[in-house]
Amino acid sequence: MVWMLWDEETSFIGRSEELGLIRAAMSRSRLVTLTGTGGVGKSRLAGRVASLARPQAEGDVAWADLSPLLNPTLLAATVADALGLSDHTPRLPTDAVCAWIGDHPVLLVLDSCEHLLAECRTLAGDLLTACPNVTILATSREPLRVHGETVVEIEPFASAQDAVALFADRAAAAGSPLKSEGDHHLAASLCEHLDRLPLALELAAAQLRGMSLPELCAGPLSAIDLPPAAAHTHPPRHAALRTTIGWSHELCTPLERLLWARLSFLPGSFDGTTAWQVASGGPLSPSRVAHTLASLCAKSVVVQRTGTYRMLDSVRQYGRMWLHELGGEQELARRHAEHVLAQTRQAHLEWFGPAQRGWYQRIEFLHADIRLAADHFLATDPAAALELIGNVTLFWVCSGYLYEARRYLELATEAVEEGQDDVWVQGLWSLGLTLTLQGEHRAAQLVAADCRDAAAAVFDRDGMARAAYLSGLLHLLQGRPLAAAQVVESMTSGTDLSRSGQPSGPTAMCRLVHVFALTGSGRLPQARHEVLELRAVCRASDEYWTLSYAEHQLALISFLEGRTQDAVGHARAALAAKRHIGDAFGIAMIMDLLAISLTDTGDHHAAAYAFGAAAHLWETVGHPQRGTPELASLRDDCEGSLVDAMGERNYDAICRQAAACDRQTLVSWAAGEGPLPGP
């Protein structure tokens, strides 16, 4: 079950009539679009509707925030991510999303469609045609114009009382509550002047941190501070918001205005590091960026939350108008892309080691920035684009961005002349990995061979190890463990992990393939010896990706040796490691092994639940159950014995119960960190 919803940061006030209209529209139409001017509250209403629908929902509820998405070709991939789909097939994302939803009941919110109207129109049409039980709630400044669409026009507050209540609530949050009847009269007058537009009221209330209410009431009617080219391009209905944002802009210092414009370039949420790296320069020194950013937060131009920052869409668009007027877009694009590339270089260097878990979180946070930087480099420096995506491929495939990684890698390798450096080698390896995980083994074998030759040509030891790992992985997935062992032995022979200290990431990955190959060919004592060495190194390094697969192999070895309780413990430890980094494919594979091991312990209920969880997780990957071939017969035998012991009806009921849970709950239970979820 997917619950990815709008997170309300402030209280929701009024709008009962609008909520009723939206719910009535959704009862008779599968596509409802909330339209209206910026700042009128479309997203808040959509979030409220989705939150209220959650307790009654029979299916999934998912929220796709489209505001940071600037590349329209990634719309379907963004929606797939919102649905929790981590597709590992070569299908187009639209096809994957349609297949994933199928006939399941799903409420999908597409928030901020206005800059992607044509793409949203096409995607919505495809979903409504292919998925009979999907309902789409969209927010946009204009309709999608899809057959069967019901449009609900959202206006400013109809009730003066609700408008004053919102202003009073935000005024209190700013430290200036309305205390007297006179305050309420002034507030009511201000709300009317601002046409009761919610965002205008919120921005105005934020100014009470630095002025009195009477001073505030004298301000918003002053001249609108707009760039000359933009001053005459907005319809009158936007006047209240333009006036309030423009007045907020007037009240800013020159440095605050400059930072506002520069930060508006960023595609979504950002942190202080990104702010000073991208926005500093000229009069904005790094130290001044921090101070000025705090001032913008105090004025509600920037919203701060748990160490991160974001701009509301209307405020960002206003800043971009000024940025365009200042003429600094290209320089900011360059600085932003170089900053993101530097971040990914560090992540790549520190992938194997104690910083790994933090980098998985950081790369996920930077997802929209990496997309934007990749698009910039594809247009200006394709080799840098290849390096950028090569740096994050291992992170992205664990986070469910396999399609995006392959797409960018293919575009970059096509644009770059065949290289003679480690960037080209890394790019080939990354492309080969995406092809492998999407099941295109023949194409991956050709790329792996090219990667090996390119690495040898430039004497890139790590590149040669990566190529060996890729070839070995392909052999394993095709049931050839002896061939896999032979490929990686040249990279692992002569190295005693217990004496040599921390290996490089590629060497550790080759060691892992060798362990899989030993287990798959029945050499269990040698496999156990090697994997225990590898696990010790991973633990000492506080590393999780390799550790999770080492524990997986210990679980399989223990099961094959008849020590099923040990097998259960190792499988749970593997899933506990996966919780730190994601990796949908690996989680599904380990859940299979946990189910097999639980069956042998006689815990039929938990085993059936684990099998149901594994089947559901494989669906999110887009494949039938996969993994190394030796598990297939074990899985089939154990499922058969469970059905015989429990009865098919009971077994299927428990599997359905597991499939109704979200991945976090499933993995938490399977890792031994939570109870078996109830019905």
Content of β-strand: 5-15%
CATH class of the largest domain: Alpha Beta
Major sheet: arrangement of strands: 1-3-4-5-2-6
Total number of distinct structural domains:
6
- Counting DSSP E segments of at least 2 residues, the number of strands comes to 9
Main beta-sheet strand count, sense and barrel state: 6 strands, parallel
Architecture of the largest domain in CATH?
3-Layer(aba) Sandwich
Helix content: 55-70%
CATH topology annotation of the largest domain: Rossmann fold
Q: Please work out how many helical segments DSSP would assign.
A: 33
Please state the average pLDDT score. 89
Shape: globular
How far apart are the termini? 13 Å
SS-based structural class? mainly alpha
What are the low-pLDDT stretches, counting only 5+ consecutive residues below 50? 221-237
Keywords:
three-stranded antiparallel β-sheet, Arc Repressor Mutant, subunit A, 679 residues, mainly alpha, Rossmann fold, globular, six-stranded parallel β-sheet
What does it look like?
The chain has 679 residues and is mainly alpha-helical. The protein has 6 domains: 3-153, P-loop containing nucleotide triphosphate hydrolases (Rossmann fold, 3-Layer(aba) Sandwich), CATH 3.40.50.300; 160-249; 252-327, Arc Repressor Mutant, subunit A, CATH 1.10.10; 328-397 and 405-414, no CATH class; 418-543, Alpha Horseshoe (Serine Threonine Protein Phosphatase 5, Tetratricopeptide repeat), CATH 1.25.40; 566-679, no CATH class. Helix content is 64%, strand content 6%. The strands form 2 sheets. A 6-stranded parallel beta sheet has the order 1-3-4-5-2-6, sandwiched between helices. The chain has a 3-stranded antiparallel beta sheet with strand order 7-9-8. Helix 15 (329-349) crosses helix 18 (382-399), helix 27 (545-560) packs antiparallel against helix 28 (564-578) and helix 30 packs across helix 32. It is globular and about 85 Å long.
